[in-house]
Amino acid sequence: MKKNKIDVQEISSVLIQEINGEGPKAKKKKRNFWNVIQIPLLAILSGLIIGAFLIAVTSETVYAAFAVGFWNGIVEALQEIGSAYLALFYGAIGSPVQIITALQSGDPAAIRSAFNPFLESLVQSTPYIFAGLACALGFRAGLFNIGVEGQLFIGGVFATYVGYTITTLPSYLHMPLAFLAGALGGALWGVIPGILKATTGGNEVINCIMMNYIAYLLVDWLLTGPMTRPGSGGMPLSPIIQKTAEIPQFFKSPIRFHLGFFFALFFAFVVWWVLFKTTWGLNLRTVGANPRAAKYAGLNIARTTIIGMAMSGALAGMAGANEVLAVNHSLATSLSSGYGFTSIALALLGNSHPVGVVLSSLLFGSLQNGATKMMVVSDIPIDIVTILQALILIFVAAPAIIRSVYRLRQSSVDTNEIALTSWGGDK
Amino acid sequence: MAASTNTLTHVKVNEISFNRRITLGVIELLVAVLIYFAFISTTAAGTLTKFVMTPGGITVGKMADWIIPSRITLWITLAICLIIGLFQLIKGFGKATNGMVGLVFLTLIFSFITWQASGKSLNLAGMLSSSVAVAVPITLGAFSGILCERAGVINIAIEGMMLMGAMVGSLVASVTGSIWLGLLFGILAAALLALLHAVLSIKYKINQIISGTVINIFSTGMTSFISQKFLQVYQNLNNPPMFTRIEIPGLAQIPFLGPILFNTNAFVYAMFILVFVLQFALFSTRWGLRHRSVGEHPAAADTLGINVIRTRYIAVLLSGVVAGLAGTFLTLGSVGRFDEGMTAGKGFIGLAAMIFGNYTPFGAMGAGMLFGFAGSLGSKLSLLGSAIPSEFMAMAPYLITMIVLAGFVGKGHVPAADGVPYTKE
After folding, report:
1. How far is B395 from chain A (nearest CA, A)?
2. I want to staple A322 with a disulfide (CB 3.0 to 4.6 A). Which of A115, A260, B300, B361 is the partner?
3. Which of A201, A225, A397 has its CB closest to that of B206?
């Protein structure tokens, strides 16, 4: 029996190598760092360039300047773009001048406020990391988890419920319990499409989309019915969670930087370890890369599908739990600002690798945070970030566009294709 | 739903297996039991249900209110279900099986609203009329999906295309003052997004679901951006003229049906025309045969000299046109201005209606109507003070789709090459 298991492991690792086109020799060859990073970097650059164009063409002052003269218009447009992106940068990272003066003055309060934009970017990145990991894990297992949004909401519901109903636990038990309840909620919501796919062949994409809307409606009902805050007057709000359930914030308000960020990093490590350092992760990747080969290697595809969706859902649920326990301290219908769909972009940009997901989440979190500042300074709606995300996603998903624009050669290390069957799913 | 009698590949013979016959019979009998315990036992004897048979604000084609004794009506519906169920169990209906299941389902819905409205008054005609209005974007969205997926390209970007069509339609109609220009540009904007989807998924062969997701994200961002930057600042940019009700002479006089079907919005007529056009084009013309063959077996189609790539481009573009029509309905036919995120998942319910309708135009319209009915029933019931939350009624389309997809109601036919990019060998 044990012998048999080892065989499976060997076969899988050979298969993975075959599928990725790397023989035993290719292992020794060091990966060219530039090859891995060039497409994402150029995609981000191209997105920012098109975004700049959009800023210029939707600005009334630019049109006014063009009415005066062509060069006036060009200068005004460049100024407009420059000030907008500078505000974005200051909003996301902080103003270098302010940081230096604060450091020189040595006043802790001044230092904290100078670094707040950066810390706030980390706060914004945290749910992205969880959600991006959820999607990346799904991709690795050959599953398209488009239901992160719904799983996140149900995770939020579970965490909130545990957060406000239990009143007698000490903080070091209550907070982890509420957080894990969130993971459980997400896992439950995620495992349903997984079971349906494994048993009936129903495509997980459609089922996930349906589950998203069921989750929205369920949360609507819960927040105006059984879970409503007493005295909220019909507003869809949950009661505020107990102090003991809160994920602690490190500094005084308004700085919201909290422990959840490190939870996210920890789980990124866990996902990396499971995917790349355990037999089980190898099996999962084999099923994802080529289900037919995995079947011949004797792997249980149905079980991998179900567990894969459950784990993916659990990570999504953690994103919801994190937002409730660390930031909002109660549940509202505004819990997610589209994390579910952004998570697909994050996983793709990060090439479904935990390190990549963390980096792309930091980027998107910073953009989101910086855009708030940009909106105040330059009167550019925050939705420009959504447009930027879509543009970056297009270029990452279709590297051929980037290659032809920047005249790059086809690289040997390409983004891995996502195995996806048709709607029927049972082929 | 309409049976797909002339799909390209295997035509399912209407043989009902023994197990299926027994299962359906038991389900139908359970419906009868449900009617007794849930409805009859909770209705007091002598209560009356009043159905208003004319939608509000209508002067042509009026019909007198329909007042029925609740309990007796429920007993009759129970008897219908009981007889159908027993006959199904003992003998079976053969070819008429699906029709009978549908009949039992309709009876159940009728007894449900009779029970809910017992002792009260419910505007049945108004509810059906608003069901049709709710069904329009869903059905058009489903048509958009059918056009695309029958040719083998998955389209989950219907939502985004609708949103863009709605915004551009409202903007152009407000600026030019011409409702037709608004309609045209709304459709063009959605078709442009469809072109992007086509290029990404056909030329660059990127995963079609990713491509669709990109378009949805882009469309959400772009419409909200323009809405906040311009539409909310200059109110007159978001104040389009609207399509008004068109009364069809003669037909609008028919009591009950007239006001619902023949005295309504131009988009509703467009939907009814389109269902016939699509059904005919897809299943009775050479164009349709080619279109479907590309979705079933592109390699074979290519061997026969059909240009697979071009056919797919045209399919995706047409899909965008119909999605744009659905979007402009929201702003120019229904609401009269653009609001951020106003599609609110209608594109995705359209996708569900497409699956539930088994990728056929009539099936999709039937599903769209059913989902529309569920939606308007939910809002009507909450007005009546029903114990059942409207959210649960609104969940029905999604749940039904999942059940259909799981194959509990019989497996539908999915185009075999749906979602598979074509590479010429």
Report:
1. 6
2. A260
3. A397
The least confident of A176-185, B240-249, B328-337 is: B240-249
CATH fold group of domain B139-405 = ABC transporter involved in vitamin B12 uptake, BtuC (1.10.3470)
Least confident range of B158-172, B181-195, B334-348 = B334-348
Residues of B in contact with A371 (CB under 8 A): none
Cβ atoms of B53 and B127 within 8 Å: the answer is no
pLDDT in tens, A126-162: 999 999 999 999 999 888 888 999 999 999 999 999 9
Residues 6+ apart with CB under 8 A from A48: A85, A388
Query: Looking at chain B from residue 331 to 350, which residues have their Cβ under 8 Å from any Cβ of chain A?
Result: 345, 348-349
Alpha-carbon dihedral of residues B312, B315, B321, B327, nearest 10 degrees? -90
Question: What is the radius of gyration, based on Cα positions, of chain A?
Answer: 23
* Cross-chain residue pair B221–A397, CB shorter than 8 Å: no
Name which residue leads in pLDDT, A193 or B257. Answer: A193
Residues A218, B395: C-beta atoms closer than 8 Å: yes
Side-chain-facing half-sphere of A138: CA atoms under 13 Å: 34
- Torsion angles phi and psi, residue A72, rounded to 5: -55, -45
With CA atoms as reference, the chain A residue closest to B410 would be: A200
What's B118's DSSP letter?
Answer: B
Instruction: Report the C-alpha gap between B68 and B54 in whole angstroms.
Output: 16
Q: Find the DSSP H helices in B151-178.
A: 158-176
| Cα separation, B326 vs B347, whole angstroms | 9
| Whether the predicted pLDDT of A12 surpasses 70 | no
> Taking CB atoms and an 8 Å limit, are A398 and B405 in contact across chains?
no
Higher pLDDT among residues A371 and A266, named by residue: A266
**pLDDT (0 to 100) of residue B401:** 79
Alpha carbon B258 to its chain centroid, in Å, reads 21
Do the bridges between strand B121-123 and strand B48-52 make them parallel or antiparallel, or are there none, so unpaired? parallel
What is the predicted pLDDT for the residue at A1?
Answer: 41
Interval A392-404 mean pLDDT: 84
> Is A368 or B378 the better-scoring residue by pLDDT?
A368
> If contacts are CB pairs under 8 Å, which of residues 107-166 in chain B contact chain A?
149, 154, 156
Chain B contact for A325, CB < 8 A? no
Per the structure block, which two tokens stand in for B50? 């009043």
Whether the per-residue pLDDT at A321 is higher than 50: the answer is yes
Domain ranges in chain B with CATH number 1.10.3470:
139-405
Q: Which residue has the tokens 């000030």?
A: A83
